[in-house]
Amino acid sequence: MEDGSKVLHAPPKDFVCPITTHIFHDPVTLETGQTYERKAIQEWIDRGNSTCPITRQDLHTTHLPRTNYVLKRLIASWQEQSSPAAVSPKSVITTDGTMITELRVAITELCTSEILREAEAGVLRIEGLWKEAKREVEIVRSMLSKPPVINGFVEILLTSLDTQVLRAAVVLLTELGSRDQGVVQALTRVDSDVERIVQLFKNGLVEAVVLLHLLEPSGLSLVEMDLVVYLLGLLASREDGGGVPETAALLLLSRIVRSYADENVVEIVRSIVSSRAIERIMIGLGGEEVEERVAAVSILLRCILEDGKCRNIIVEKVEIAPLLEVFLVVSDGERFEIVHFLSELVKLNRRSLNDKMLHVIKDEGTFSTMHTLVLYLQNASVDEAPIVAGLLLQLDLLDEPRKMSIYREEAMDTLISCLRNSESPIAQICAAETLLSLQGSFSYSGKSLSRALLLKRAGFDRTYKSFMRKDQRRHNISAPQPQHNMEDEGEWEKKVAFVVVSHEFGLVFEALAEGVKSSFKELQSVCFMIAAWLVYMLSILPDTGIRGAARVCLLHHFISIFKSDNNTEERALSMLGLNTFIRDPEGLQDLAGHMKDILKGLRELKKSSAMAFEMLKVFSKEHENSADLWNHKELSQQDCSINGEVLTLACFKGKIFSGHSDGTIKVWIGGEEEQLHLIQQVQEHTKAVTSLAVLHSSDKVYSGSLDRTVRVWTVTEEGIYCEQVEEMKDQINNLVVANSIACYIPQGGGGIKVHSWNGASKLVNQHKYAKCLALVQGRLYCGCQDNSIQEIDLVTGTVGNIQTGSKKLLVKSNPIHALQVHEGLLYAGGPSFDGANVKIWSTSNYGLIGSLQSTLDVRTLAVSSELVYLGCKSGSIEVWCKNKHTRVETLHTSSTAKILCIAFDANQDILLVGTSDGTIQTWGLN
Q1: What's residue 14's pLDDT?
Q2: Which pTM value belongs to this model?
Q3: CA angle 341, 343, 344 (to 5 degrees)
Q4: What is the DSSP letter of 26?
Q5: Distance CA 763, CA 766 (A)
Q6: Is 3 left (phi over 0), alpha (psi -120 to 50) or beta?
């Protein structure tokens, strides 16, 4: 029989459960009058039974009643009287008889009185005697810890409504439980007892939370009892930090946070952050008890990991010294929580704040923080070591890097060792993320800005801005984030990058080369970012030969990503690395076999990235023969001869627009196999469409025609529709537009018409017969019949002569047929004159920069970021290198018709040509 070793007589049958045949621990009496052990009868019901096991009567409810405390108290009294200790002479108390007598009377009132008021009076008398007891406290404790007394206190908790009595009972149980584990076991044996204590706390009896803490309930059960909001309410209500109840609430909250999985703790953490409790939790960092400090760290760390912006609140008031003082006396797991917490505090969005916090960590505390960390690092687990190493390395870098530092060497050895430890993917990821975070740039929420900043450096500024906006929205940050001090961040970044790449002469690059080949995608991605960052930094740091080591380890991976990855951002990061390697002759030599693929990728990125454009320049300069770099492939031909000549072409919003001599405008899109597909054809002009002009600021397309109108078109997904018609007095040639004006050459007359959209117009440069126009930032460039070129300031009316034309009547006319302004240079083309068909002028000082020595009669031209295309009267297109002024290639149309217009798509990869025989021909840049 259970407890048989402790009793002298067989228990009465009413004290024994008929199912278990053991003495009751938690008796419940059913509606049939039969009593059973709670767990036993619950199992009977859970098996699908709905009758009483003894009487076989149907049960109207399967919900069990509360504990039968009367029976429980009788059993406890019987056990007390029947135990050997009850009759042993050793149990006789020899002390102040008066106090003991009063205590026995009070206990009797509590345990045997059937009148609630007498039992309550007994509780209050016991409380008074407990407070008076000094030398006799252990004797009093032993008397009060007996099961009948504990059951009496519990019954008071269940039945009394008197707050004073309830508080006294809770305090007494707390005092007893803190001294006697048997009391705690007795209270936790019955679930309803714990539930009542919880309910008392919810009802405002704050002392109950201390007793609840003693019972050590699981974090899951605390959440199920809906205690989080009450714990936070208690913590938030005491601005001065409070006392024992607040500490108990803090410890319980820590139990909840530690026991919950990541996906389930988010809402709890949000509740903590949104309440004022976080300030009380921070006070716990300096608490008197080690347990309280560790609990505060645990909660605050979880808050930071789930809601990064709260670290900014914590940093303002955090006390570091108390944590460093307990570092050596806590467990390994708690020690790591402290280090992890400190490492998260130095992920602020301003470098100066991070440095300040690092100095606090380094200088406060009784012992040397760095020495303590290095000793801990040597014994830390492989999964925890990277975070410890990362913090240690940052502390070491506060001073100028020394030639030798045991802290730095130990930290770097650990990080690289963990990064290469393929048996522990967790350690590898942790080491990689730690290395990346050393870059030192973070958002307000503590997210690493490394990737966004690297893309910004590669020319993708929009990605950086987009990341910052998303971070603000995700963390509900309304105030603008402080601007980064680039000088401070740059100094830190150079310092940390120098230390990382210099360790063991670039050993980190070997580890990264292994990481980027890992089968774990996450590790692969982070290692690739670190590689891009460190290789980029090599272009800024003094070259000590490490660049060659990095190239050996990583060049081919960068090339592979750049050639094959469809992700533009990944290619941009690869480009960042390649940009460093092309600074060395050896790097260019290694790239030679992949040149075509690299050039193709750079051309695709150049529209978004200035770096891609600059790299193209480098490749152009390094290759003596530019023809090795550029070649074109014919893609398609469209016969539009039914609509007459193709007089003008324009590209806008992924569509191609062509204007024809019969007044038709056609809209095309690129299709499969790079063929053009006609999606719309309109003929609202009654005569030839001579010009198509795009105004990007208003998303409009303008068409000029010999029918003396300018039409304004809105571009949609389906095509275009005319929203405005401007009637002119003259036929329109060479239309150019700005926000408020349109300029054109009137048919057959001198000068240039400047038409305001409000209806006013004027004639400028009336003494010249203009052939072509270009309009840039309020300045109109005019190429004339007499080979002269003028710049006209449309605001002041000032005319400047860029090139003086021929004044001799008998000299053959050499008109300027084509003008284009690109990057501050004016390209002017026409028939051969002075040995050059195209001259290049500076728009700032009118100086002649150079010329293209073509022998063909140039009728139209177009300038891209790398090439100059000359459309000639003979039906061919010459392609020239813009930087070297050398001919790269000559393209031939299918006929000998004149080239009337040239354009290219937004990426400058597709060349479009319109001819006098009505053909639109396309070439792709290989």
Answers
A1: 80
A2: 0.69
A3: 65
A4: S
A5: 6
A6: left
CA distance 913 to 903: 7
Q: Per residue in 390-432, pLDDT tens?
A: 999 999 998 776 667 899 999 999 999 999 999 999 999 999 9
Does residue 623 carry a pLDDT above 70?
Answer: no
Sign of torsion, CA 163 166 170 175? positive
Helices (H), 238-318: 244-259, 262-274, 277-283, 290-306, 311-317
Buried-state track 678-706, b at ≥16 Cβ within 10 A, e below 16: ebbebebbeebbbbbbbbeeeebbbbbbb
What distance in Å separates the CA atoms of residue 180 and residue 401, rounded to the nearest whole number? 57
CA dihedral defined by 327, 332, 337, 341, rounded to 10 degrees? 40
- The whole-number pLDDT of residue 307 equals 85
Q: What is the pLDDT of residues 195-220, one digit of tens each?
A: 889 999 999 999 999 999 999 888 88
CB contact set of 865 (below 8 Å; sequence gap of 6+): 606, 613, 616, 882, 908
What is the average pLDDT across 702-726?
93
Amino acid in the structure at residue 471:
D
pLDDT value at residue 409: 93
Cα(376)–Cα(686) distance, rounded to whole angstroms? 86
Average pLDDT of the chain, as a whole number: 86
Cα separations in angstroms, 700 against 651, 710, 721, 722, 757: 12, 12, 10, 10, 14
* Residue 735 · residue 755 · CB < 8 Å: no
Question: What's the confidence (pLDDT) of residue 94?
Answer: 40
| Residue 127, H or E segment | helix 116-132
What whole-number distance in Å separates Cα of residue 530 and Cα of residue 535? 8
How far is 895 from 922, CA to CA, in rounded Å?
14
Phi, psi (5° rounding) for residue 771?
-115, -25
Residue type, 100: I
What is the reported pLDDT for 917?
Answer: 92
- Residues with Cβ < 8 Å from 761, sequence gap 6 or more? 728, 729, 753, 754, 755
Q: What whole-number distance in Å separates Cα of residue 860 and Cα of residue 468?
A: 45
Amino acid at 282: M
Does an H or E element contain 903, and which? strand 899-904
Per residue in 456-469, pLDDT (tens digit) is: 898 887 766 666 66
> Which residues pair with residue 710 across a beta bridge?
704, 726
- Rounded to an integer, the average pLDDT of 25-52 is 86
Q: How many angstroms separate the CA atoms of 711 and 724, rounded?
A: 6
Query: What burial letters (b/e) apply to 868-902, b meaning 16+ CB within 10 Å?
Result: bbbbbbebebbbbbbeebebbbebebeeebbbbbb
**Nearest alpha-carbon partner for 701 in 747, 740, 651:** 651
For the segment 512-540, what is each residue's pLDDT rounded down to a tens digit? 999 999 999 999 999 999 999 999 999 99
- Token output for 251: 């410890």
Q: Looking at residue 860, what is its pLDDT? A: 93
CB proximity list for 264: less than 8 A, separation 6 or greater: none
Q: Which two tokens stand for residue 742?
A: 């349109």
Of the chain, the percentage scoring pLDDT greater than 70 comes to: 90
Structure tokens at 462: 């929009």
